[in-house]
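A sample copied in:

***
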Amino acid sequence: MKLNLTISILILPFFVFSQSKQNQKIDSLLSVWEDTSFHDTLRADAFQAFIHEKYFRTDLDSAKILSKEHLLFTKQSMNGKRILNSYLLNTMVSSQTGDYKSAIDYSYKALNDSLCQNEWKCQATFHNALGNIYTFMGEGQKALRQYNTAINFQISNNGDSSTIGFLYSNIGNIYQSIDKDSALYFFYKSLEIQTALNDQFRIAQVNWNIATAFSNNPHKQIQYYKESFEFFKKLNYKTYLSSLAHNIAIKYNELDDLQNAEKYSKICLQNALESNTSLEMLKANRINSFIHEKKGNFSKALSFYESAILIGDSLNRASNRKAMHESEIKYEYEKKLRADSLFGVEEQKIHQAKVDLHDAEIHASQTISNLVIVVLFLFVLFSVIIWYRLYKSQEKKELIKNQKQKVTEALTELETKKKEIEHKTLEILDSIHYAKYIQNSLLPENEELNKFFNKHVVFNLPKDIVGGDFYWFKSFGDQAIIIAADCTGHGVPGGFITMLGNLFIENSVSSGNKQPNKILKDLNRDIVTFLKQGEEDAIQDGMDISICLIDKKKRKILFSGARNGIYIVDEESVKSINGSITPVGGFYSRKEKFKEREYELQEVSIGSKEWVFMYTDGFYDQFGGDKGRSMGSKKFKEILNNAVKEEKIKASDFKNYFFNWMADYPQIDDVLLVGFKV
């Protein structure tokens, strides 16, 4: 599980250097910090970068000592932004070393700072940092509140997509131990954003998290772990490589593939040795001991086991070693500062003596001449002031007269422009309302649904005047096709995609009844072709969609979905039927073919008391409730189950459910829910 710990107030550049170039960079940063001729701001930035580059991933004890020195220096320089940077650096280092109390204190000091309170990005950064700290502490609910606060700042202020993406990933980490489906949902949302941004570093981190979520599928876990491993291998991140190789070895062992398990246990040990990280060495020796014991190499197994015991004992004595190491580093660091300080004091004394002597020699001769000059200057000054005031008084009268005329003309012009803008606004709104009329005219008639279904409900609530969600229905005797779709975006852009979706669906089934997976395939091909999505810089819009082919006589449904599923609900339970993760239209993977995608077809039997619900993500993504977080699939399924139990299945009932949850929070997306009984 990888948490997103980034310094986002001061942005430190990230490069991949060879070892020699990396050392040159670190030496350069240190030389800037030690050179007092540079401005304090530049020195503070260089010192922070030096701590991050040299110690953050290799020697956290040293990083903690030097981070405190950095905070003292920034407070002395009275630079508010650098103080906030230092609070964030100390927060990160303290949380990584397990000093959670200090990490929390630093975060709240920053949040209470007036400079941070007036900057939403700063507030979002430290709420995310608190979320990471509470996650380390195992306080899931507290962490979730902090992440939701951070993501609300980002969404309400149109924050950058990358930050929103890694916040979704952090929220997914919290759901790991609560609801695996919810965890995967947030991880895939994060992966979708990072893939669109082509942020390979973030993609590798999210893949790591996704692998952890597939705890019951070792093959799937190995696939995602390896994708992350290959990326961090390019960056030569030894600690990450050791941890990932350890996880891969464990999964191959679960599959009884000892050859690959031994291969990755060796890779784990090699990277742990090169990273010189005690915790990774402990894990590496344990997994190698276990693998060799399972293979019958008992002497090697014993050797690795003894090494693991020694490292474990060493970690238990870490507090004594840490205190000694801290004293040594602080002593050497302060000794150098004292030497520099003494040398500077002696030079200052000599210089000051020379200045005092020179001042004494010229002071007497200047006193009389200065007095005469001051008197003459005051006389001339008063004369000029009197003349200037008379001149300015007359000038101001003319200026006020001219300005009054200009203000009158400007107000007249503004009134004219205001009327023009109001007229154009009304024209635009009229056009959008007419577009809504056209969009609604494409939706199925309620009478058609009444004729086919025993009972049905449609709750359709666009975020704006026109929406990006739509539903489609067509019957063929005792069979019918019903579709619920969520197009990219909402408002006017989403509305355009719904029109295309309706057109392409009609084209696909124009020749008669067709299986849902084939309709999805046709729809994907038409969108990719029409929007030319195979070309560079093309619009990558698409849709999440679920399709049911219903047979009333057989009481069966053929279902296919693209990133959307359906729920089968009765008074006792809610059964989830998941669709394929492959989207319809839009970029998904460089390895796949855009136009020819395949979708899974599933057959489901429906009882006489069971309801089938088709949906888009706008309902359960909505923020609200007592804690201001998104509803999530668990709460959504609970609402559906209660609605069936209590027989409150009208559109008005679901509107009440939704608005009671949303409370005073703004609606964030279009909402569509379609339910029916056969």
